[in-house]
Amino acid sequence: MPTSEETALSTPAAQYVPGHASAGGIAARARGLTKAYGSGETTVLALDSVDVDIARGRFTAVMGPSGSGKSTLMHCLAGLDNVSAGQVWLGDTEITGLREKELTRLRRDRIGFMFQSFNLIPTLNALENITLPMDIAGKKPDEKWLDQVIDTLGLRDRLKHRPSQLSGGQQQRVACARALASRPELIFADEPTGNLDSRAGLEVLGFLREAVDQLGQTVVMVTHDPGAAAHSDLVLFLADGRIVDEMERPTAEAVLERMKRFDSLRGPSDGDGSAASADVNLDKD
Amino acid sequence: MLKATLRSFLAHKGRLLLSALAIVLSVAFVAGSLIFSDTVTRTFDRLFASTSADVTVEAKDDLSSQVPTGAAQTVPAALVDRVAKVAGVASAHADVGVENITVVDSKNKSVGPTTGAPTIASDWFLTDRSPVKLTSGHAPRGGGEALLDADTADKKDVKIGDTLTVLAQPGTFKVEIVGIATFTTTNPGAALVFLDPKTAANQLLGSADKATGISANAAKGVSDTVLKQRVAAVVGTGSYEVRTADEQAKSAAADLGGFLDVIKYVMLGFAGIAVLVGVFLIVNTFSMLIAQRTRELGLLRALGADRRQVRRSVLTEAILLGLVGSTLGLAAGIGLAAGLIKLMSAFGMNLKTTEMVVGWGTPVAAYAVGVGVTFVAAYLPARRAAGVSPMAALADAEIAEIGRPLRTRAIVGSVLGVAGAAALVGCATATKTASSASFLGLGVVLTLLATVVAGPLLVRPVIRVLGAAFPALFGSIGRMSQRNALRNPRRTGATAAALMVGLALVGDMSVASASMSKSFDEQIDKTLGADFVIQNANFVPFSKEVTDKVRATEGVGLVVRQRFAPLAVRLPDGKRIETTASGYDDGADEVAHVTYAQGDTQAALAPGAIGMDVDFAKDHQVRLGDTIPVEFPAGQKTELKVTALTDQASADGFGMQGGLFFGIATVEKYVPGGQDSSLYVNAASGTAPDQLRKRLDTTLDPYPQVQVRDLADYKKLVHDQIAVLLYLVYALLGLAIVIAVLGVVNTLALSVVERTREIGLLRAIGLARRQLRRMIRLESVVIAVFGAVLGLALGLVWGVCTQQVLALQGMDALAVPWATIVEVVVGSAVVGVVAALLPALRASRMNVLAAIAHE
User: Fold this and answer.
1) Cβ of B846 under 8 Å from any chain A Cβ?
2) Contacts across the A-B interface (CB distance below 8 Å)
3) Which of B182, B563, B621, B795 could disulfide-link B150, Cβ–Cβ 3.0 to 4.6 Å?
4) A155 near A173, Cβ under 8 Å?
5) Across the interface, do A128 and B479 touch by the CB < 8 Å criterion?
6) Cβ contact (<8 Å) for B766 and A119?
């Protein structure tokens, strides 16, 4: 766990003291984080020397146009992808340089995940999916906490259902419960509302908000939907592999405005071959 | 459309690789066995055609006994003069050549081949057709001198000047090796000893007036066929067989080919298993390919391809696969044949790989099997592909495949199953061997089909049970692997079916052989009363000298000789049956416990009397006191009175149909010159069996081919003979398993690809590589064990029914080799682990990010 001495806050995101009682310290941190694809002349920088601190007990959204490197940032912070240069810490553990086995354990024990689609194992029922990370680790789930999570997400009467028997929104709620169940230090949500209709999407965002406010969790959400970003405490704007701006207590309109500004700024460079190829290359993530 | 087919074939070549391997294996066995037997046949045809005289006269072999009697069939030596006088005969020679001998060196070690090939002693008569030539030393010049063939001399380290002992039917004699003869043609594996002609007739046949045949060569301008007719006219065909060189070559090759035929049939058996198991693999591969490509096929249909075009496209792919597999299989078959030929030379049969014969029939058979099997196996999947609706281009393919109900399978499976069960009940209740066996065959085929068809229906209930402990033992990893195996019952069922077929056969054969062993044990315990049985290997008779020496051994009490006689009996129901009867000495009651329905041993062994099995008698309307006509070899006929009917479970096998027996005097009278096949020996009172055994061993030291066996040894001998059958079955099992493993690998590899995203997700949320590998391994194990359990269950049912057929042959004990069955189940789990190695490795190396990638 990070200590209170952990105060090297250099990104704008951390210049404001979070307004939550449970907040304090840094959940994850990156310095000079660089991720390059390809080599030589065809090298494409997905992340270009990014410094970022993710404050504990807050709901951080990462926004950016497609190809901005937001998913890559999440993958690198979560130890799913290796970095080309720079360092990443989860709490006070430096995860850059960890071996595959240690990274796997770290993801299992300290990080929760939600993805856009294919979040659940089709052969397991809802409850089995929720407790899967702990089962894999061979740990007993904390029953009280588990009950609280299940009730918060309203899944009590869906526990014996298989994913194929659940709606998209329900599936995403199960994924949310799974991410929360092991009480991880950090939850990464990659476009969690991307595949949902607006009502189900709102519901899921509400739950993530609740996880932060009531359960004291830390959530990092990658999204390109200003409406979704508006549910967060802080929005980081990514463009061309750099953090270009941030916004406290965002509203959908403000985020949209900011995005439009980036687009108009980026507009002239759209014809640029390198920017186009970066888009193409990053489409796959 | 053809272009699309070719593209698709090439695109899936990795996936088709394992199917191709199955085709290669089956074609290789078909081609290999054909090439091997063609090569052997051609080689021996040439050998015998080039070494046979133009016309040969031999004693008529009218009762070819399956049980060797030890007697050599002879003709009067004087016949040569009559043959020589026939117009058109340039030269005639009285041949002496016998196989009923044993040759031992000064240390009493056998000099003959250990492979079952004969040791042949003959007269040294060199012609331009002789298969050998003298390469060192000199020709034998009278008694006490002999030549040995170079290969045997080499192998057994015999040199010129060494003394060998020849144990011949008329008596034992010693010879000094004075020369070495080397084969100029292919050595068929026999050991050859040459004596000078006069010595040969005297020592081997017991009289200078006898010969084993007359060979005559034609004068210029006289054809073999013409000469044969002329010779036949002179000697008469009533008691002589006259053959041309070609006919002689065929007959000789056929005699020798017996054991080579066994190799051929074993190989074809392997090919059959490979084809049978391969079919499942191919069906499964194509089904999976089509399931994977449902969208693509739907698109083709949406673009206007009709059903026939889609079906043809899939079948074209199958034919391409068959062609590739057959071609590789043919090449592998040539390699296999070359290997077999090499193996034969290790047994002393010098075939040359350079003279390998690939007849036109071999590639035809290879391609017919390879392409035919692939085509047939791909037909159903192709039809299913044609049934893909254009809408499938838009829908999720995999779900549609899984969701199809199994109702048709349930109905067809139940109908076949009920019919099969009825046939097996018929088998168990039939009282005639023939009808019982055919019911068994029918039942086996039907129940196998039923299990294959209904396999997917059994997946759920059986794997639920088999994998029940997985969640408890391996947590969620166990749970996921169990449920993954249940995910696509069709696929799991078909994958397991490949293993099931092989293991069902093993289950059946192991029950049958265990039951046979147990039955024989019980029978030996019940019937054998002698302290010792003295026998040659393979029931080949031994010389009279052995009998005399045994009788003279201190402490020997009763000795009962057993001698075989080939005969034909004409029975009251009008049937003429050729079989082999046994002759016994008086006192047989002391060494064997025989129960009689009517009569007794004494009556059966009396002069002019015969005993037989009561069931055989009943079947052929023979009653006690009937007199039946009996034919012996060389046209000797007599009538014997039925004086005893035995009532006991006796095995009809081994060419001894009817259990006919009489006094040994009858054999001596009608089959003169025969040798004893077994001696039943009791210790004299006051001599302990252990003590006698030592003495008998000493007595028989100069006769390495003869063994002394007590009850336990005798049982072991029988067990060993049954074990040979079992080894063959295990070899077949090995092959079946290799192909089944390919099938499991295939299925798992595809599942891994299909579940890429799922696996990635698991890895993302913290499943370690090791755990992922274990998950796939467990799935593989549960599929393999499912196949094994199904196969063994089927095999046990078959085995019990097979035993019912055996019971009609007198083998009425049922034994289930539980240890073997447990071993097979454990073995199948190991198979599962092995099959999972590569797919698991591949899954664990998969990129984690693949799962969380957006569409």
Assistant:
1) no
2) 91
3) B182
4) yes
5) yes
6) no
Q: What pLDDT, on the 0 to 100 scale, is given for residue A20?
A: 40
Spatial CA neighbour of A121 closest among B767, B849, B289, B782: B767
Q: Which of B759, B765, B773, B845 to mutate to test the interface with A (most CBs of A within 10 A)?
A: B765
A223 alpha-carbon distance from chain centroid: 9
Cα–Cα distances in angstroms (integers) from residue A27 to residues A55, A235, B311, B535, in the given order:
6, 16, 59, 89
State yes or no: ipTM above 0.95: no
Distance from CA of A120 to the nearest CA of B (A): 8
Using an 8 Å Cβ cutoff, are A208 and A177 in contact? no
Q: Which of B149, B165, B161 has the alpha carbon at shortest distance from B203?
A: B165
Tokens of B601: 């041993």
Residue numbers in B near A172 (CB within 8 A): none
3-state secondary structure of A63: strand
Tokens of B82: 């009559």
Q: Please indicate whether, in this complex, the C-beta atoms of B476 and A135 are within 8 angstroms of each other.
A: yes
- Sheet with A26-37, strands from edge to edge, namely A44-55, A26-37, A85-90, A93-94
Report residue B387 as tokens.
């049934």
Q: What is the domain extent for residue A254?
A: 56-74+98-263
Contact across the interface for A123 and B853, Cβ inside 8 Å: no
CA distance B253 to B41: 7
| B855 CB within 8 Å of a chain A CB | yes
Interface test with B, best of A113, A115, A196 (most B CBs within 10 A): A115
Sequence-distant (6+) residues with CB within 8 A of B719 are B517, B520
pLDDT at B794: 92
Count how many domains chain A has.
1
pLDDT, residue B78, reads 85
* Residue A163 touches partner B, C-beta closer than 8 Å: no
pLDDT at B767: 87
Tokens 């687009």 belong to residue = A263
Residue A212 sits in a domain of what CATH number? 3.40.50.300
Q: Which of A75, A109, A119 sits opposite B849 (nearest CB)?
A: A75
- Contact between B676 and B682 under an 8 Å Cβ cutoff? The reply is no
Report residue B593 CA to chain centroid gap.
33
What pLDDT is recorded for position B62? Answer: 61
Find the farthest-apart pair of alpha carbons in chain A and give their distance in angstroms, rounded: 56
Amino acid at residue number B640:
L
With a cut of 70, which residues of chain B have pLDDT below it?
1-2, 4, 14-15, 61-71, 115-116, 255-260, 347-354, 391-405, 537-539, 648-656, 850-855
Extract long-range pairs of A256-261: CB within 8 Å, 24+ residues apart. Answer: A256/A226, A259/A63, A259/A65, A259/A226
Helix (H) or strand (E) holding A35: strand A26-37
The reply to whether A48 falls in a domain is no
The whole-angstrom separation of Cα B572 and Cα B577 is 11
Contact B766 A135 (CB under 8 A): no
By three-state DSSP, how is residue B678 classified?
Answer: strand
Alpha helices in chain A (DSSP H): 70-77, 100-110, 126-130, 132-137, 143-152, 168-181, 198-213, 226-229, 252-266, 273-282
Residue numbers in A near B751 (CB within 8 A): none
Half-sphere exposure of B69 (CA within 13 A, CB side): 26
CB contact under 8 A, A135 and B761: no
Residue A144 lies in a domain: yes
Which residues 6+ apart lie within 8 Å of A285 measured at CB?
A46, A71, A72, A75, B849, B853, B854
Q: CB B260: neighbour CB atoms within 10 A?
A: 19
In a domain, A86, yes or no: no
| Residue A136 belongs to a domain | yes
Of residues A134, A149, A109, A143, the one with CA closest to residue A1? A109
Tokens of B338: 């070359």
Which among A70, A80, A116, A188 is the top mutation candidate for probing chain B, defined by the most B β-carbons within 10 Å of its own β-carbon? A80
- Dig out the tokens for B588 from the structure: 């047989």
